[in-house]
Amino acid sequence: MLYKPTNISPSGVVVDGQQPITISWENKGNRQYHYQVKIYNNATGTLVYDTGKIASYAPYCTIPSLTNGIEYKYQVTVWDVEDNSATSEWVVFTCRSTPSASIINLGEKVLSPSYLFQGQYSQAEGIEIRSFMFNIYDNNNRLIATSGEIFSDVIEYEFDGFKNNKTYYIELQVTSQDNLRYTTPKQEFLVEFEVPDTLLEVFVENNPDNASVKITWKPIQITGIPEGNVFFVNEKVNLLDGAVTFDENYSVKGDFTLRLWFEWPGETEILKLRSKWGETIVYTCADGVRAVKNLDTIPFYFRSNEIQPILGEDVLLVMRVERNLVGLEVVR
C-alpha cells in the first residue's frame, strides 16, 4: 500500500529564494518509483514551479530559485511500481532575502587597546534585525573574543585588551526576525598605538634584621593624549598650561561616578565631557565646583557643596552622573 508523503520540509519557515531550496519528504508503505512537486503562489494560486513526473527513488529534490517576498504552498506526489499515486497535504513556506550587514567604522588600523565596533543592517523586504554578534580572530584564524549574541537593533560592541602591533580579524553576524542569518567576510585590522610616557616611582626600604633591601615601585601613566605643556611632578601631572584628552576610543555607557583628585587651582575650567547628546563643563569657583550641562543647546546648572579650599590644597571631586542629572561633591 502507498501512503501520502509526510515530514515534508521546508514547512512553516522562511528561506532565501535566491539560494537553492531542498524539498524533502518521508515515504511509508510501498517504495517510491516516481515523484512530482508542484509549487504555487499562496496568495494567487498561480503555479510557479513544476518538476514534472521524475523517475527517482530519492525522497528529495532541489528547486533552483524562487522569488523572494512571496508565500508559497506546495504538494508532493509519489508513485509506486504499479503506478499507484499518493499526494501530500498542502505545505506552506515563505521566501525572503538574506539580510546584509557591514562594519562601518573600521579602517586599516585601531589606535587604542580598546575599540567600539559599529555595524549596519539591511534587508530587502524590510524585515527588522533580531540579533547580532561580533567575533574577533587572531592570525591563525582562532576565535579569541566574541560579543555573544546581542538582541538589539543598535549594532555596536566594545572589545578591549588588544595587543600593540598585532593584526586581528573581525566579522559581524546578523540574524533577521525571520531567522535568516548573514556573516560578513572577515575584515583585517592592525592595532597600533603609542605607549604613553611612564613615571616610575621607586621606593627603597632597608631591612637590617635580615640584611636585605626591599624595593617597590609605582608606575604612573598618562593614557590620554597630552596637549600643551604636560609633565609629571612627583606622582602628579601638571596641567596648568596643558590638558589631556580622552578621545572616541574611550567611552562610558549609562550612569557613572567619576573621582578626580587634584590640587585646587583657583577659579578655572577643569573638566569637559562630550557626547553626541551635548557637552558638560566642570569648573572651580570661589565657593566650590559648578557644572553646566548643555542638552540640545539648553543649559542645565549644577553646584557642589560649599567649600573654600586653599590654592594648591589637595581635594577630591566626586561627580555622579545619573541620566541628565549631575551631582557634585568636593572633599578636602
Q: What can you see in these coordinates?
A:
This protein is mostly beta strands and 332 residues long. 0% of the residues lie in helices and 57% in strands. It has strands at 6-9, 14-15, 21-26, 34-41, 47-50, 54-55, 60-63, 70-79, 85-87, 91-95, 100-103, 109-110, 115-122, 129-137, 143-146, 156-159, 166-176, 181-183, 187-191, 198-207, 212-221, 225-233, 236-245, 256-263, 269-275, 278-285, 288-295, 298-303, 314-322, 325-331. It is elongated and about 105 Å long. It starts with 5 loop residues before the first strand and ends with a strand.
Question: Brief overview, please?
Answer:
The protein has no helices and 30 strands. It is an all-beta fold and 332 residues long.
What keyword list fits this structure?
332 residues, mainly beta, Immunoglobulin-like, 7-stranded mixed β-sheet, 6-stranded mixed β-sheet, elongated
* Distance between the ends: 94 Å
Bulk shape: elongated
Task: Give a count of the beta strands, DSSP E runs of length 2 or more.
Answer: 30
Query: For the CA atoms, what is the radius of gyration?
Result: 33 Å
Structural class: mainly beta
Main sheet specs: 7 strands, mixed
Count of helical regions: 0
Provide the β-strand percentage band: over 45%
Q: Which regions are unreliable across 5 or more consecutive residues at pLDDT < 50? A: none
Summarize the helix and strand pattern as letters: EEEEEEEEEEEEEEEEEEEEEEEEEEEEEE
Measured as a percent range, the helix fraction is under 10%
CATH architecture of the largest domain: Sandwich
Average predicted local confidence, pLDDT: 90
| CATH homologous superfamily designation of the largest domain | Immunoglobulins
Number of separate structural domains: 3
Per the CATH scheme, the topology name of the largest domain is Immunoglobulin-like
